[in-house]
Structure formats: structure tokens, C-alpha cells
Design brief:
Helix 2 packs parallel to helix 7. The chain contains 17 helices and no strands. It is about 75% helix and about 0% strand.
Length: about 325
Amino acid sequence: MSRFFQQLTLTQIIWAGCLLTLLYAAFSRGAYHSDEHYQILEYAHMKLFGSPALDELPWEYGLQMRPGVQPLIAYGIGWALVGLNLYSPILLVFLLQLLSGAFSVWVALFFFRVVREELGGIRWQKWFLILSFFLWFMAFLHVHFNAEMLSGNLLLLLIALYLKNSRDKTSCPFRWGLLLGAVAGSLFIVRFQMGFALAGFGLWLLVFDRRWKLLGGMLLSVLAMIGIGLLCDRWLYGEWTLSPINYLRENILNSHMDSFGIEPWYYYLIAILGEGGALFGLLVLSATIWFGVKNPRHVLTWTLVPFLAVHLMVGHKELRFLFPTLFLA
């Protein structure tokens, strides 16, 4: 086995990872959580065919508290399939899973190229790619077209882009700010809860990297992406609305989400071991804690701490709420 590992090349691992992702995209059935169906596919189907009726949609639709970005993507692919007379729910899901898997692979490889030199020798680089592609839960989650996975990829991309830029500060900071802001804004309009991670990221920039042209470009792009998010919501709900405010009001201020159950603060510590298995659950927990303790001033630490802290304090907890950080573990 050790000889086989030594003979493996990075290219072989990458191609094998791509093949595995393709197989998961083709044969993975069902959803990890029902929101993946009812908050995306159901909305897209309603826009395509007028069914189900509005009063049969999930309760969140009437309160206008879900983002319209992913339903619009699903609608766009479904609309193309209808136009080609190829529409079927199974084909639509396959294409969405293929799209999600391709984006996951691309972001993972981009992140790998950015941090490759920090991983040490070729042996650790191989392990990094193997764990990225072949852990069973990573392979499964990579292809699922839901807010947790898309926001996780966008968070990973945001960190990778910033690390890449921080090594070459001679490049145009305003243009890099526009790019970083576009990713950060996309992250927010896909999953509003990621605003806590973005707050930590922004605070780190203000404390440790006060490049005002970079920050100015980021602010401009973030506002533009929020505007795009508002347009997507206008398409979904048929009227102008502020879905992030609606979400904050209903789930946080009115504690609507607590009606689905309240868990103690240490729930995630147990749930990670339960779903991830004792071995990999412990690895995920220990790796996260070890990195934060060893690197208290790192941008990644400042990004993750507020996100994790808020989720520990909120009463209603589900392990999928932490999936956006799983890509970094």
C-alpha cells in the first residue's frame, strides 16, 4: 500500500477525484435535507409550470425570507431543457448536481494551488487532495445543490483569493477588491447566515490589512451583489422585498426557527462525532481547534470564530448549518 501511495501522482489523484464526483452527480439520489428540494426545486418548478400553487408552497415563501439566487439558477436550466423539449425532473437534478460538483472540484483545486507550498512535501499534498475528494461525506456533499454547499465553496474561494492577493500586494488593490467583494457578496445572498463569517473577515481586514483601495473595491462589489440578490428576490416573489431582513425578523427576532427544536450549546460537538464518525469527527474538531489556537491572528480564524460562536448560541441547531466550514477543516 505504501508503494502504491508513493507511485501515485497528484494528477492521478485529481482525475480520480473528478471521476468520483461525476459518479456521485449521476447516481446520488435524494437530498440531505428537505430544504434542498422545497426551497429550490419547488420554487423553480412553480415558476416554470405554475405548480404547486402559491398556497401549497412552504411557509417561508409567504414570509419572503428565502433568497432567490439558487431557484433562479434551477429555473434557468429547467427553462433551457423545456425549450429543447428535454425536460425531466431527474435530468434537471443531474445537471444541477453536475454543476455543483464541477464548481466544488474547481474551488478545491484552486485552493490547493494557493496553499500548496504551505502543505509541505509531496506526501502531504497528496493527503490534502485525497481528503478533499475521497472522504465519503465530502464526495457526497460536493454534488448537492443547496445553500450550505454553495456558500461553503464561495467561502473557500474567498479565503483562497485573499491569500493569493496577500502574497502579491503590488497588483491593483482596487481590482482585487472588486473580485473579493463579488465573491463575498455572492456568499451573503446565497446564505444570509454567512454574514457572521463575513463580519469577521471584514473586521480582520480593518485591523490587519487596511488597504483602503482594496476595501473600497470590496464595498462597491458587495453592494452590487446585494442589488443582484434583490433582483433575484423580485423575480421569485413578484414584488420588491428585503429577504435578509425578513429572515432576521422571523428566525432570529421572532425565534420562529426555535419551534423546530432547541439544542444545548454543546450539540455540535456531539453531532460531529455522531455523523462524521468518531475518527473523522475527532479529526475535524481537533484540526479546527488546533488551527485556531496556533494561528489566532490568521484571517481564517477571525472569519470562522464569529460564525461558529453565533451558531453555538442560537437555540435551534442542525449539523448542516456548519457545512459551509467543512471545506476548510
